[in-house]
Known about the structure:
There is one protein chain. By secondary structure, the chain is of the alpha+beta class. The protein contains 15 helices and 14 strands. About 35% of the residues lie in helices and about 10% in strands. Strands 1-9-8-4-5 form a 5-stranded mixed β-sheet, with no helix packed on it. The longest helix is centred in the last third of the chain and has 19 residues, at about 415-435. The chain is globular and about 80 Å long. The chain starts with a strand and ends with a helix.
Amino acid sequence: FVTTAAYSQYSSQTAYHPNSVKRVFLDEHFSGKDFMILSEEGDFVIEGKVSKAKFWPESGTKTGFADFSEVTQEGSYQVVVGDELLAKVDIDNGQYKKLGKSLLKSFYFARASFELKEAYAGEYARLAGHPDDEVIIHSSAADKNRKEGMIISSPGGWYDAGDYNKYMVNSGISTYTLFHLYDLYEYYFRDIYLNIPESGNGISDLLDETLYNFRWMLSMQDPNDGGVYHKLTSKRFSGMMMPHEDDLKRYVVMKTTSATLDFAATAAKAYRILKDLDGGEMPDAPSVLQQAENAWEWAMKNPEVLYVQPDDIKTGQYKDKELGDEWFWAAAELFAATGEEKYRDFLKKSTVKFSLPQWGRVSTLGLFSLSMQDGMNTPESTVNVERPLLDMADRFLNIYKKSAYKVPLARFPWGSNGELSNIGILFIHAYLLSENTEYLEAADACVGYLMGANPLGQCFVTGFGDKSPVNIHDRRSHADEIAEPIPGLLVGGPTMQARKDCGPENYPGTYPALSYLDEECSYSTNEVAINWNAPAVFLVLALDAIYSK
Ligand code: 9MR
């Protein structure tokens, strides 16, 4: 066979799981043609027809695909049309576990106030940065309890993204996502080891890593009144240096209602997990619940304190104008944790809209948690959980079915890869509620897209695939003098939202799905962030847990 480079062909660049939906997307030139799947040695395996090429408005390109999902035997295969070898693909039972573990290990690499030792970090070993044991109360956060300039201690936690700041709103959804994954698949995580310092302490590594950030979250609450600081940050973004080299002063800025409610929700979720554990060094479950309730009480007294960026602070904002969804989420988690009437009443009266989760839209996270509680869907129940989840999943399933590239994305916001991963999580919940395997197929196709089955032929996770992000917007990866970026990081992905970062003329084309640059200047498409990695971990490892059952 002749290997062709003249036509585009895109498939997952890491192995498919034997249960995966398996497609290679082919240039419209191959529309309707016969294809063959051959073994590595050239033996015939199956044949089929390339689907009729379809136009995708998001990329401006036409594509058909060869579907070889029926091949489930592990191994390497060749995709052939006529006398042309179009692609080589692999099927491997262990690949999702490997990928998911790497995505999860990236949180360890993001630990603040923590030295990464070679035994766990290999060549990415580094000194501790940002001790955060002397953080200044910014004037915006000062009140009768804590005066401007006063010092508090708030060490640990994960760096948010390519920058070194720690933001409560974004931490809330990311930490919740990993807690929820544990909650659903505790049995699966019993023997998932990440080689982190806590490995082997009798607690799942997923939980150990998630608690690293959660402990920091606990320290961000003012014990005097229950309010929670919006962020812990320097006044401006640091230069592209290693964590220990950044000596900018650190501040806690404002107590906001969004931060406080996201904290309450995450802490209530944590309480339900912690109360069933008896590890000596775990946060004390009843105290965690108390902190969640104190946060709720603060929010009741301060129901709409929105974040306003002070003039002298220039870092990320995570600013939200609409808090109905934060209220719903916190009430749902506190109700699940306590069963108390006041939360039930709140939920019953709620008229909140449910939409795809992201840092500023969190109501659906409450539905995710409630969907696991017994008796939630009975007529006398608090809220109808099933219908809104299935309706939302069906909207995305429809987009998936119609799309030429079999991807449920209809818009490309900043962090489109995170958006897609969250759609995958929604599909998984829809599958768990309905047992309809169409949702599972669609969730799996999201992994395929992230790993290279997309119109750019780009794998979006560092350390995986043939065409993998290298010049990511990440201070550690820039400054560590190692050519390869830190592995297991999902980049934000295509968006047209801020093409000024590298200059709009430097981006390929004018189509959203193509608007991606593997350049460090591209903080809008090539940065990494905990709220994109967390749903990717969920998607990949929940699928592996489901497949391996
Ligand atoms: O993910 C955030 C995205 O939704 C916003 O549109 C964007 C601009 O405000 O900010 C993104 O979050 C960044 C945060 O503000 C600072 N750390 C890096 C985050 C990822 O780019």
